[in-house]
Amino acid sequence: MDKIFRVNMTDLTTKIEEVPAAWAGLGGRGLTSTIVAAEVPPTCHALSADNKLVFAPGLLTGTPAANSGRLSAGAKSPLTGGIKESNAGGTAAQMLAKLGIKALIIEGAPKTGAWYNLAVGVNGVTISEEKELLGLGNFAVIDAVEARLGKKTGVLTIGPAGELKMTAANISVKDPDSKIRSHGRGGLGAVMGSKQIKFISIDGEGAPGVKIADPEKFKGAAKVFAKALLDHPVSGEGLPTYGTNVLVNILNEAGGLPTKNFTVGQFEGHDKISGETMHDTIAARGGKVKHGCHAGCIIQCSQVYNDKDGKYVTSGFEYETIWGLGADCCIDNLDDIARADNLMDDIGIDSIETAVMFGVAMEAGILNWGDSKEMLRLLTEEIAKGTALGRVLGGGAGSVGRTYGVTRVPVVKNQGIPAYDPRSVKGIGITYATSTMGADHTSGYTIATNILNVGGYVDPLKKDGQVELSRNLQIATAAVDSTGMCIFVAFPALDIPECLPALIDMINARFGIALTGDDVTNLGKHILKLERDFNQKAGLTSVHDRLPDFFKTEPVAPHNAVWDFTDAEIDEFWNF
Amino acid sequence: MKITLKLFATFRNGRFKVAEQELPEGTDVRQVVLGLGLTEEEIGIVMLNGRHGELDSTLSHGDTLSLFPLVGGG
Ligand code: SF4
C-alpha cells in the first residue's frame, strides 16, 4: 500500500503515515494542491516554518504507461503568494512511485543555522546534517551524491539561488543522464532553502514497485495510448525533430513573439535562434536531436546541445528559455543562450522567470539590449554569488521592475509572462490572467488551438471563444497534471478520439476503479476551485486576475493588437 | 504577381527557406502547396501576412505566404 512520508524539519523527525481516504484517488498536482490547501495557512509567509513543500508522483507514475514519469512539487509560492504546483521530469518521480510513496511532505524549519540532506528509501527518510555540499552548483551536487551513494541514486537539489532563498529559485531533478530537469516556476527552490535542505537523495533499492490491479486491461490501454502519441504529427514527429523551439519561427510569423521586453511581436534575429537552426547545429556538432527527460518518454522533445568542439553545453533547451533570452532580450547568439541555460540549471534558477527578468533589466538599463556577455557575467558574478544586485535579479522580473521603477513589467501575480504575446494570442492572455499559478502558459495552453490548429482553431486576434478555450484547457490540464503525464500528451488527446479514453482506462486498470470522462473533468474543476480558494484566502482575488496595464495601452506590431478584455469578461472564466 | 513564400521545418528539406515567386493572378494557396510537391494533408499551418489562412485563400500581389507542417508545442 502507498504511504505518506512526512518530514518535520523543526524537530528533525520523520514519520510514515497511512494515506487518508480522501487522498487515495489523487496524485500529482491534485494531491500536492489538496495537501497544501489542507495543511498550509494561506496567509503564512511562504518562507516560514508554516509552509510545506510537497512532492507527489502522478497516478500513473511508475507504471509502464508512456510519458507518465513526471513529479509534482507544491507549496505556497514565495513568488506569487498563492498556491503553486510545478512539475518536472527526471528520475525521481518513478523512483518515489515504485517505493510506494504517494507523497513526501516536508514541514517546519530548523531552529538553528544548520543545513541538512534527506535520504529517502524503502524504510523511510533519514535526516543528516550537510556541510560539504553547501554553496555548490547543482551539477556538482549531483556528481557528489552519486559518488557518495551510487550512480542510480535519485537527486532533488537546490543551487546557490535556493540556498539564498531567491524567489526565482527552482528545484533541480536529476535526469537519466545525470543532468538536470527543473521544478522551475514559482520559487519552490527558495521554499526548500527555507527548510535548510540542500538535497534529497532517493534510494530505489528494495522498492516494491507499482501494483496494477488489472494488468491485461492496462496493457491494452497502454498500447492504444502509445500509438496515439506516436501517430499524432506533433508528438510523433514535430516535437522529437525540432523540440519546442520550432515555435520561434511560428510565433514570429504570427506576430506573437514578444520582443525587446514585449514592445514588438517579431524579432529580426529569429532565424538564428530558431528550432530549424538549432536542429541543424545540434546535428552538425554531434549532439542529440531527441532525448527524453525520463525513462518511458516516447515523445522525446528534449535534446543535447553541444558547443563547437562537440562538448556538452545543455539539454532540455526549451523554446521559452530561447525566446526569453533571445527575442525578449534581443540576443541572436544561440551558443550564448545555451551557456546561460546551463548556468541557470547550475545556479538553480527558473529559466523563464530569469529570461523575462533580463528583458526588464535591459529596459532598466542594468545591461544593454543584446549584451549576452554581460548577461552571462550577471549570472555567474552577481546572481550565483548573491551580491545585492544578484539578489534583486534573482527575485525575478517583478523584483527588478519594482527596484528600478520600470512600468513595463510583464508579470501576473508577480510571475513572469512567458513566450506568447497576450495581445496577439488572446487565448493565452486569459490563461495568464486567470491561472491559479500566476502567468503560466502550461496551465491552459491555448497556443495549440490559437496557433497550431490542434483541437480546432480559434482566431488568436479576436476575443471570441478565448475564455471558453482557456477554461476547457485549464480544467483538462489540472486533471492531466494529476496523472504524472507530460502535458504534451494533450496534443494527441485533443485530436485523436481513442487517446483520452485510453488514458482513463489505464488509471482504472491501475487502481481497479471505474472513472468516466466526466469524473476526470470534475477532478480538473475541483482542483482549480480548490487552488483558487487557497489563493483567495491568501489575498489573491479577481483583482489579481489581470494583465499589466501596458498591454491595454501599448499596441503591439505587426498587428497593432491591444489587450481588450473587460474585467467582467475575464471573470467569466470562473463561471463553472 | 509576386509573392514571398516562406517554408519552415521539414518543408525546407530539399527546397528553400524563403523565395520570391512569380505567379498568375488568382492563384490560391492550394496551388502553391501542390506546386511544391507537398500534399494538403502535410500542411499544418498556413499563414498569410501573419494571419491564419486557408488552402482556398486567393493570393494577391505582395503577399507573404508561410507554410508549416504540423509541429510545435511548448
Ligand atoms: S515530451 Fe519532453 S517534457 Fe514531455 S516527457 Fe518527453 S522529454 Fe519530457
From TrEMBL, chain A:
Alphabetical list of InterPro entries matching this protein: Ald_Fedxn_OxRdtase_N, OxRdtase_Ald_Fedxn_C, W-dependent_AOR
Residue ranges of every copy of the Aldehyde ferredoxin oxidoreductase N-terminal domain listed in the record: 1-206
Stored Pfam families: AFOR_C (PF01314), AFOR_N (PF02730)
Signal peptide: none
PANTHER family, per the entry: ALDEHYDE FERREDOXIN OXIDOREDUCTASE, TUNGSTEN-CONTAINING ALDEHYDE FERREDOXIN OXIDOREDUCTASE
Protein name, entry field: Aldehyde ferredoxin oxidoreductase
From TrEMBL, chain B:
Lineage: superkingdom: Bacteria
Family matches, as Pfam families: ThiS
Name this polypeptide is given: MoaD/ThiS family protein
UniProt source species: Geomonas diazotrophica
